Amino acid sequence: MIPYGRQSISDADVAAVVDVLRSDFLTQGPAVPRFERAVAQACDAAHAVAMNSATSALHVACMALGVGPGDRVWTSPNTFLASANCARYCGADVDFVDIDASTYNLDPEALAAKLADAAERGTLPKVVIPVHFAGQPCDMDAIAALAQRYGFKVIEDASHAIGARFGAHRIGDCRYSDITVFSFHPVKIVTSAEGGIATCRDPALAAAMERLRSHGMTRDAALMTGEPDGPWYYEQIELGYNYRLTDLHAALGMSQMDRLDEWIERRHVIADRYDTELAALPLVLPTRAPGRRSALHLYVVRVCTGAPIDRRALFDHLRASGVGANVHYIPVHLQPYYRKFGFGPGDFPVAEAYYRGAVTLPMYPTLQPEEQAHVIDVLKSALL
Ligand SMILES: *Cc1c(COP(=O)(O)O)cnc(C)c1O
User: pTM to 2 decimals?
Assistant: First the structure.
């Protein structure tokens, strides 16, 4: 089966992990800050805080921005569960903003309309979490302008988008947001097996996230309320978690960062070929918005209404032909957990219509030309 996404592990990656195993530190050693610096450098971030997953990083990001019970957090319905769950961990109420029909990202016009309405009712969100779906940056200019106007904070869920750019800005530099979160899960662009990093500009925010990833502990005398009774002294000043990344994971991620640009280049070559070869089929192909450099985490096509077969039949045909197609994403508001809060079908019609036709095709840097040719042939035989 040709998977929809796949990690690529080099001998150098293996050696980097083995080196850590033979070193003094398996966790909380030098590999984590090295990985943080590599990611910060790659995306022009002032600060980078590594955690054991992007989910943990999203949770800590919400906490660091003060999200709590009674607050509202808005995100896209076209995302992985974690973009919404992070707010629920803090006891906040989650709501969604429908997506743009061509980028599948949170629609800034829908956001503007919803904000105007919320301002009247006194129900403005504390945080909005735009998701750079499939690696394509959201319209961050528009979102940042709305954040200014209505006074909410922005966390970019850039789990798909390390290496992407919005205009001249690298995703992660937080030019348009308070915090940006990356995932290093194996299906993402760069992997540390499990892992996530939160970047930000504000040093106080970075310090808060560092504390929250490790039990809310500090050794900073300025933050303590008591007198140290020895050099071993530390204080817990708030409730944090054990969300630390290990040195093993950090060494793998660090080693992978060398190939980031090359991999994204490869993803664009693969997307170009799909764009050309699938153009005549009854599929809606993904768009790459001008002025933005997508990281192309996913290549999603939509089956047109009126195609010879529907999405389900196409999906089954791909799987039966050795193509590990997938679907991203079931709209989060339709999950049973979120329906309990009153959400249901029809609430976010653009995301729901998108979902009904969506199929994710194989896309990863080591996808071989003959494998891609097979994917294309299978699609042609099903749809022409
Ligand atoms: C993968 C993913 C996450 C969660 O990442 P983990 O590192 O697996 O916790 C969050 N948001 C989006 C959009 C993702 O794709």
Answer: 0.98
